[in-house]
Specification:
By secondary structure, the chain is of the alpha+beta class. It is built from 13 helices and ten strands.
Amino acid sequence: LVCHPPMLRTALRSYAFLPVSRPTTFWRAFSTPAPGGKVPTALIQELRKRTSAGMMDCKKALEASNSDIDKAIEWLRGQGKAAVNKFSSRIAAEGVIAIAIRANRGVMLELNSETDFVSRGDSFRTLARHVANAALTDTSLSFPKNRIGEVPVDKVMNASVGDSKTVAQEIERVVSTLRENVKLRRVSGVEVATGSRIGSYVHGGDQGVGRMGALVAVSSSTQGDEAKDKLASQLAAQVVGFGATYLSKEDVPKDVLDAHKGDAASLYSDVVLLEQGFTVADPEGGRSVRDVLGGENGVTVQSFSKFIVGEGIEKKEDDFVQQVMEKMK
């Protein structure tokens, strides 16, 4: 079929004046895109700011909640609980010791993870600091008076870490991100009276987080706070560095003494703080902790506590490939 030019021009003119059906445009509010539509970046950022969850997790939460932020927060919390339940049976023997001190209160805790790799990460160490500070500042938590002692873990888990989140919820969030079992294993704390001070030392880290740590409470009626703080910190370093287990000879259990009959003096110098050479404060003098504190310093050690990551936890040797595959699920 051949179409001559005059006929083609006539046909095109006719087509140009045919009525055109225009698509109807529907506008939606910025914060509520159509189901299945793209979630605005600003909304994702707002959810991340409020929950500290990852960008992709925030996007998934908003998609699952039709861009309702409150529902997305609940969705994230639900995911966190599910992750905690999934990983809770795994052995968590790595981790960190975190210490926080403010005024007359001090706290030390052990936060465990499954792997050393995770325990060295910023997010895990930041979590440990947040938990320590939450325990320290929560006035509803009762700390032992003048002697360092146990603070119930379940009560610390209910302490607030800000933005209406509890320690438990913050741990759930981190578990869902890291995909490892994270466990608050133990907490010790103390509240001292006027005239007493608290010292601390952490080894194998910085900013109050490390692999080993100690808290020491001291008192003195003659020394100022600065001098007491210095001695308390030196004592904490002594406890960690030289393995003190007991404060005085009287604290050593009978069964331990019976196992070292004939060599009690050596036992005392090894594990009793007051009988050890105070190497940290008096490296050349060779004086014992008792001599240094009881001389011109007039300082009394009220109590001390020492934590080492993973002590007493039986570690299971897992297949590395299997660990990787588990994390990919």
